[in-house]
Amino acid sequence: MPNSPITTSVFDLFKVGPGPSSSHTIGPMKAAFDFRQRLAQLPSETQKRADAVHVYLYGSLSATGKGHGTDRAVVAGLLGWQPESTDPVAMLKLLRDPAALYPVPVGDKTLDVGPQHIHFERKRYDSPYANTMVLKLTSGDEVLAEEEYYSIGGGFIIHKGEPEASANAQTIPYPYSSMTELKALLTDHAISLDELLMANEMALTGRSRGEVNQRLDQLLDFMHKAVRRGLKHKGVLPGTIKLSRKAPILFQQAKGMSQSSDSFLIFLNAYCLAASEENAAGGIVVTAPTSGASGVIPGLTFLAKHHFHHNKATMRAGMLAAAVIGFLVKHNASISGAEMGCMGEIGTASAMGAAFLTRCAQPTADIGPIEAAAEIGIEHHLGMTCDPIGGYVQIPCIERNAMGAVKAYNAFLLATSGAAYFQKISLDAVIKVMKATGRDMSTKYKETSEAGLALSATEC
């Protein structure tokens, strides 16, 4: 059995929730909700003494949290909201009035929380992760309860003192932690990639095959609804940049030039921009693997459904192939922009998208071209910075989703050209390079808006 096998579910990697950032919105919402639950379990004497709840944000949660809506996400979690069931319109209204206060239950009473209780800390905090949250229940200057959380990308959180949530590895019929180990399992057990991933998913979640397939269909539906909304919605995105939506314009342009060879790319760009613009507006999207990269796979799957006319079974198989690439990156590097820069987000999404396209194009799940496509996708995003202007998931993030999808498509073409097995660099090797590159990158280029394009804010 491999060391520390991957026990992430497809449905943990692909999560439904409000934009614009999984690490800044979904993760903090989940952490605040968890803190709310813990407050309810405190001794009644402690609850009675409490007079305030304070939230301290560090790392890029502080540096770009305002632009990402982290303060609204924290309030939503403290109010008991959950990502998938959140009304994005209601969430955008939170904290719009700086004098507004929101009741948080603590035992038999409620404590009001407002902007003054959410602290964007600029000082360095001794933490193993870039995005750290500390939530405190206080009585005057006395801290009655304190919990520390880390938002590690894609909406995943870790609670200090507790291991990262995972299933018992003994329940996984086919444990692996690398592509090398995965390929060995396929050979040793004479099993297809589709069957191996389905067996693991059923064991992890306790769902039947039909239930797994039904949820995959639901996720695709959430993705495609985001694309459709984005193709219709016009106007200006929220925030000080005043960025105009482009997806509806591109979509109409593509429809008007159906005889041109360029229309295919324009359609793909329109689909990716549509989902990404919905994310930037705080709409409901699917982390793929993050909200900041939630335009790549929705755009590609929308294309696959409406242009290639793949059936549901093929689309599901493609989603599983995409997921395994996301698992490997998350397990062996990171999908967090605060850890890896944008290569962790768009780079991973592009590799996942390339794997999706490659699997869909094959009558059987030949792992060689899938691995080659994913490796090419990551290789050509190495070193990509995360430098959002003003802390908003808009420039360069929205167009970067479209570019990541185009690279995914080209990676698919290269990998299915018949030369997949000539690829010199393995997926495992490029993920190691990705991790090392992220470690070596200056923190200025990792979601802090302190360098790169972020310094162009004055021109917007």
TrEMBL record:
- Catalytically driven reaction(s): L-serine = pyruvate + NH4(+)
Q: In this protein, which residues make up the domain named Serine dehydratase beta chain?
A: 9-161
Q: Which GO terms describe its biological process?
A: gluconeogenesis
Q: Which GO terms describe its molecular function?
A: 4 iron, 4 sulfur cluster binding; L-serine ammonia-lyase activity; metal ion binding
Pfam families from the UniProt entry: SDH_alpha, SDH_beta
Q: Keywords in alphabetical order, please.
A: 4Fe-4S, Gluconeogenesis, Iron, Iron-sulfur, Lyase, Metal-binding
Query: Which Gene3D superfamilies does the entry mention?
Result: D-3-phosphoglycerate dehydrogenase, domain 3 (3.30.1330.90)
Query: Which cofactor is recorded for it?
Result: [4Fe-4S] cluster
Q: In which pathway does it act?
A: Carbohydrate biosynthesis; gluconeogenesis
Q: What is its EC number?
A: 4.3.1.17
Task: Provide the Serine dehydratase-like alpha subunit domain boundaries.
Answer: 189-454
Q: Which family does it belong to?
A: Belongs to the iron-sulfur dependent L-serine dehydratase family.
Protein name (record) = L-serine dehydratase
Report the source organism: Spirosoma linguale (strain ATCC 33905 / DSM 74 / LMG 10896 / Claus 1)
